[in-house]
Amino acid sequence: MNKAPGLLLAVCFLSLCITGSVLAGGYAPQKVVYHINYDNPKQQAGALRNIQNHINAVGAENLQLRVVLHGNGLTLLLEPDALERLKKFKHANATDLMTAKVDGLKSQGVEFKVCANTIKGRKVDLESDLYNVSETDIVPSGVAEVAKLQAEGYTYIKP
Predict the structure, then answer these.
(1) What is the pLDDT of residue 5?
(2) Residue 143 contacts residue 151 (beta carbons within 8 Å)
(3) CA–CA separation, 87 vs 128, rounded Å?
(4) Distance CA 13, CA 5 (A)
(5) Boundaries of every domain in the chain
(6) What's the count of helices (H) and strands (E) in the chain, helices before strands?
């Protein structure tokens, strides 16, 4: 009995699997939490770029990605009109460019989680001060959320 056709088929299948893995970056599914608690607009834009690059490398279908914002990190989603009223913030970075990037990331499955302690402590109005944040995006504590996600197996990244 000639085993060559079966062996050839197995080799072809294996090479297709390896090629597909290389083309997809070879990454297994990942769970990642990005932690943002700073208000520097350039650093925040860099974080959003890192997140998009991460998605491009791993594939949105292979990635559970959360962005946790607390403290000065809320400026990423803070509407410019709110800055005059909210004296505890130095920047309001929800410009058209930043909100387009946020929307693009959300459309790829990225979830932005916002700290209720910061909202309350800094007297932020959820409906008028923050860009595209709903009640379901609010977590009781930003740092507690980061710790919870890490306990659930999320890899921590602070860009």
Answers:
(1) 52
(2) no
(3) 16
(4) 12
(5) 28-157
(6) 6, 5
Instruction: List the structure tokens of 138.
Output: 């609010």
Could you give the residue ranges of the DSSP H alpha helices within the chain? 4-23, 41-58, 96-106, 116-121, 126-129, 142-151
Topology of the domain covering 28-157 = Hypothetical Protein Ychn; Chain: A, (3.40.1260)
Question: Which pLDDT value is given to residue 24?
Answer: 52
Q: What is the largest CA-CA distance in the chain?
A: 84
Instruction: Note the pLDDT of residue 88.
Output: 81
SS3 content of the chain, % helix, strand, coil (to 5): 55, 15, 30
Report how far residue 125's alpha carbon sits from residue 80's, in angstroms, rounded to the nearest whole number: 13
Which residue, among 137, 120, 33, 144, has the nearest Cα to 77 in the 3D structure? 137
The residue ranges of the chain whose pLDDT is under 50 are 6-23
* Tokens of residue 53, six digits: 């690059």
Interacting residues of 134 by C-beta distance below 8 A, sequence separation 6+: none
- Find the radius of gyration of the CA atoms of the chain: 21
- Cβ 58 vs Cβ 25: under 8 Å: yes
